[in-house]
Structures are given as structure tokens and as C-alpha cells.
Design brief:
four-stranded mixed β-sheet, 2 helices, about 15% helix, globular, binds 2-acetamido-2-deoxy-beta-D-glucopyranose, Self-incomp_S1
Length: about 140
Amino acid sequence: MTIFPFSFKPNYVVFFVFAAIFFAALALPGHANSANQTNLGYPINKWVVHVVNQMGASKTLVAHCKSKDDDLGIRDVLPGNEFNWSFKENFGGTTLFWCNIHNNHQHANFQVFWHEDETKSSWLHYRCNWKECFWVVKDGGIYIT
Ligand SMILES: *[C@@H]1O[C@H](CO)[C@@H](O)[C@H](O)[C@H]1NC(C)=O
Ligand SMILES: *[C@@H]1O[C@H](CO)[C@@H](O)[C@H](O)[C@H]1NC(C)=O
């Protein structure tokens, strides 16, 4: 007795179902568990990093953010404004962005995005709510909110 129609062999049907689930999982990030979009071990969601100038009165922030592959240029961020960009993680798990920032008096160099293996830590992913990281530069320091 066969429960499979036409000339499909069971293996093909199983393969089809598996392939359909696999591609559906890739195509619908976060479908199964809304916020987490690392499916099947592949980082596929789009991230946005924001660098926000909340320093005191009329202090312009100069931000120079980069990854190994991208130089995002030197940006003047006016008080109350921000600089942002979006990207997808590479499949090698080596994504890393950092920023050099300064105002007239102070200078800092810090990482704003790095790859996280959620089996070990989701410190950054959690703070970015699995989509957007807000780095806020204030007079007293740099905060992720
Ligand atoms: C999924 O995301 C939630 C927050 O939306 C987080 O608390 C949870 O640890 C994540 N689970 C996994 C398996 O990554
Ligand atoms: C990115 O920053 C610009 C201002 O430079 C702002 O207009 C835009 O809304 C920001 N994008 C996002 C996704 O917040």
C-alpha cells in the first residue's frame, strides 16, 4: 500500500518537506520565534546601529565608524542628531564594527557591534533587541540603551 501520490518516492517527499521548511525558515526570519532571527545557525537579520549625540549644549560629535570591510566615513553629528547604518552579519561570524569618536576635548574608541554566539552570550543582542543598537554619547560617557 502506498500513501504517496503519483510517482513520488517517500524519500523525495521527505526531502521536499525538509527543503520547504528549510527555505521557509530562511525566507521568514523570526517567524517561529519572533525576535530571534538567527535561524539554523545563520545570522540573517538586518541590524541597525545608531550613534547618537546627546552631549551638552552645542557640542558636535565627530564619528568615524568602520568594519574591516567598510569605512563609513567621518561624520559630524550635531547635538541631538545621530548617525546610523544598517548591515547584515557575514556568515563567518567575524562581523565587527567600531567607532572612533571625539569632540573638542575627549576621544574614545569603542566597539559598537560584534558577532555573538547566543549559546554563550546575548549581551549585545539583548540590548539591541535583536535589531537596533543605540549607542548614546553623553558628557559623562557612552551608553548602550
Ligand atoms: C529569543 O529572544 C528572547 C527575547 O526576545 C530572548 O529572551 C531569548 O533568550 C531568545 N532565545 C534564544 C534561543 O535565542
Ligand atoms: C538615521 O539617521 C537619520 C538622520 O541622520 C534619520 O533621519 C533616520 O531616521 C535614521 N534612521 C533610522 C532607521 O533611525
